[in-house]
Amino acid sequence: MKFTLRQLQVFQQVAEQQSVSDAAKALQMSQSAASMALSQLESQLEKPLFHREGRKMTLNHWGRWLRPHALALLGNCKTIEMGMQSLDLVSGSISLGASQTPAEFVVPELVAALDRDFSHLEIGLHVENTEGVIAGLLDYRYDLGLIEGHCDDERLSLAPLCDDELVIVAGADHPYAGKDTVTLSQLEVAQWILRERGAGTREIFDLSIHEHIPRLRVHREYDQVSVILALVRQGQYLTCLSTRAVAEGVARGELVMLRVPELIMKRNFQFIWRRQDVSSELRELVLSRARHLIQIG
């Protein structure tokens, strides 16, 4: 073998930090040693791996090809190290990016089950909207994503997990709360508090509502569901959220799901990952455990 694991570590850190000096700091080595390791790797592979723009380093075609293979190899090394230390065959780490609704209503039970059965598996969780999770995967910040919105990026593979439905919601004191059905014209003149653009919930709602109403009176946009629900409970606004997110408020009588016959907004929660990534036992473990929890739930 021409190259070393240390050289691959340097390559991965430079790809992540886009800087040799920052990569050296992350690896606690000198800049000259990091620069030499990267130079040796490129020489041994007989290919340049980065575009060099001053101090900034960005992956070229060969670097983008190498990165998932380097990540897989380094991940396997960490699994070996942790597994031998703990005598646990399921070990290592996986970074999960999740959009807000599945992060709140699916991920906690999943992480708890994995912690219970595989105590040496490290799980990093990062909560962003769907757009952010997709960007994080493509930027190699996450190994796996769990989203609630659409994803048609051909660079990513996907696996549906479970069904979900969006509903129009009002506070119990809203004028529409006592109506059997609400018309589109009534929705058009209402004031709305919605998820921010880039959120999967917002994307699906916009696609559905704009077939009937070209422009809504959107008063506020927030990225936190708890803030949106707190405002809607005041009685002035409508919103559109997952049935999972509003179920508790509805059960307490604080919120009312409005019936709008023209709007049926069903979707899937789905896992996504980079299509070019090599097969991952940890990824398959997370997917299979999540599916099991959904089935028994």
Automatic annotation (TrEMBL):
Keywords per UniProt: DNA-binding, Transcription, Transcription regulation
GO MF: DNA-binding transcription factor activity; transcription cis-regulatory region binding
InterPro entries xref list: LysR_HTH_N, LysR_subst-bd, WH-like_DNA-bd_sf, WH_DNA-bd_sf
Domain HTH lysR-type: 3-60
A UniProt-annotated Pfam family: HTH_1
Signal peptide: none
PANTHER family, alphabetized: HTH-TYPE TRANSCRIPTIONAL REGULATOR, LYSR FAMILY TRANSCRIPTIONAL REGULATOR
Protein known as: Transcriptional regulator
Organism: Reinekea blandensis MED297
Lineage: Bacteria, Pseudomonadati, Pseudomonadota, Gammaproteobacteria, Oceanospirillales
